[in-house]
Amino acid sequence: MKSVLTVKDLQASVEDKAILKGLNLEIKQGEVHAIMGPNGSGKSTLAYTLMGHPKYSVEDGEVWFKGQNVLDLSPDERAHLGLFLAFQYPVSIPGLTLANFLRTAVAAVQGEKVGGNGNGNGKPAMDLKAFRKRLGEKMDLLQMDQSFARRYLNEGFSGGEKKRAEILQMAMLEPEIAILDETDSGLDIDALRIVANGVNALAGPKMGVLIITHYQRLLNYIKPDFVHVMAGGQIVDSGGPELALQLESDGYDRYLHGSETE
């Protein structure tokens, strides 16, 4: 049975300013959804609220996934359930290699124990040889040079390299629902194509994808099943891929009502 992320009448605020104003959305494993909208519509707020960022206060509504209202769960518990967020602006951590970061992240999300410290269900951590084999396979799938894993996390990375590191993390964690917050932000055409190819290599019946973007150009490479327009903290229109093309041509004017929220 496919897992479904169901957002019901979600209302959220930042510093007492209302951002999401009754948002409804449903995403199933195997589906690719895109949310588009102008600046200030609440797109990134939705992404962070779904993953439990403490800056965002939920005022009302529910978010159901695998029989649980995830709004009652901490961010790490949501990750354990199978949710994932690729950040628009990934942070750098000097001194921590990408490989070590990924090994720790996989152990944490899968409830394994590393170095004798248990978390989650306390399963033995994947041994180093098995981890390296899996990491190598995922990097080959994403057409990434193996030396990439030995670099410090995002330290000195270009914008495209940071986004590829996010996609590699998604590949290793194998979430059931992945949220990509403006993954195309700051990428040139070549980097955009590489990142999109990585997403396409991972998308399939076991993973649903929510792509948050301003522009049609990313959707030239990642074909969505559904496109939603967000304005004023709500989903105001939905359709197929043709809706994104219409937005590229006509813009968002007909959806705007003089209020910006993000």
Task: Give a nutshell description of this structure.
With 262 residues, the chain is of the alpha/beta class.
Description:
The chain is α/β, with parallel strands linked by helices and 262 residues long. The strands form four sheets. A six-stranded mixed sheet has the order 6-11-12-3-13-14, sandwiched between helices. The chain has a four-stranded antiparallel sheet with strand order 2-1-4-5. The longest helix has 15 residues, at 159-173. It has helices at residues 43-51, 75-81, 98-109, 128-141, 159-173, 189-202, 241-250; strands at residues 4-14, 17-28, 32-36, 56-65, 68-69, 83-86, 93-97, 112-113, 123-124, 152-153, 177-181, 208-213, 226-231, 234-239. 31% of the residues lie in helices and 30% in strands. The chain folds into two domains: 4-89 and 157-255, Rossmann fold (3-Layer(aba) Sandwich); 93-153, no CATH class. It has seven helices and 14 strands. The model is unreliable at 114-121 and 258-262 (pLDDT under 50).
Q: Topology of this structure?
A:
Blueprint: E1 4-14, E2 17-28, E3 32-36, H1 43-51, E4 56-65, E5 68-69, H2 75-81, E6 83-86, E7 93-97, H3 98-109, E8 112-113, E9 123-124, H4 128-141, E10 152-153, H5 159-173, E11 177-181, H6 189-202, E12 208-213, E13 226-231, E14 234-239, H7 241-250
Parallel strand pairs: 3-12, 3-13, 6-11, 8-9, 11-12
Antiparallel strand pairs: 1-2, 1-4, 4-5, 7-10, 13-14
Helix pairs in contact: 3-5, 5-6
